Amino acid sequence: MFGKKKAKSIEINKLSSLIADNVEIVGDVIFSGGLRVDGRIEGNVINKGDELGLLVLSERGCIEGSVRTHDAVINGTIVGDLSVTHFLELQPKARVTGNISYSQLQMDCGASVEGKLEKLEDTADSGTKVLKFGNTPAPAAASASGKD
């Protein structure tokens, strides 16, 4: 009646693993499928291989280390770089201190990022590639000194 809701771009995955709020892990975590983090991880969090994994970091969750995954919904704290090859959602309580690379981004009011945002560009052969900023040649008029 009022129109269709826009479907989210996150690919549906079953959240098969949970790190509860009373759990602290020191070391790298490699996951497949879906992972929900309510606890604390001191180490890198990596989506296994080329799988289409989903990381959900709750408001209570904290990761100190680099994160690499296909899709991510972040509402907690990450201290380290975040690389999401498909869809990244930063919810209102998200706090990221580090550089972020993504293909699609949804950032809610209240989310905080201290670092660079880099948009990944889809390519037919490799899936994604990082766009380089500032590599466009200057126009001839802008580079000329204007003096003869």
TrEMBL record:
Among InterPro entries, the record links this protein to: BacA/B
Taxonomically, the superkingdom here is Bacteria
What Pfam family is a match, any one?
A: Bactofilin
Positions of region (Disordered) = 128-148
Q: Which family does it belong to?
A: Belongs to the bactofilin family.
Q: What is this protein's record name?
A: Polymer-forming cytoskeletal protein
Q: Which organism is it from?
A: Denitromonas iodatirespirans
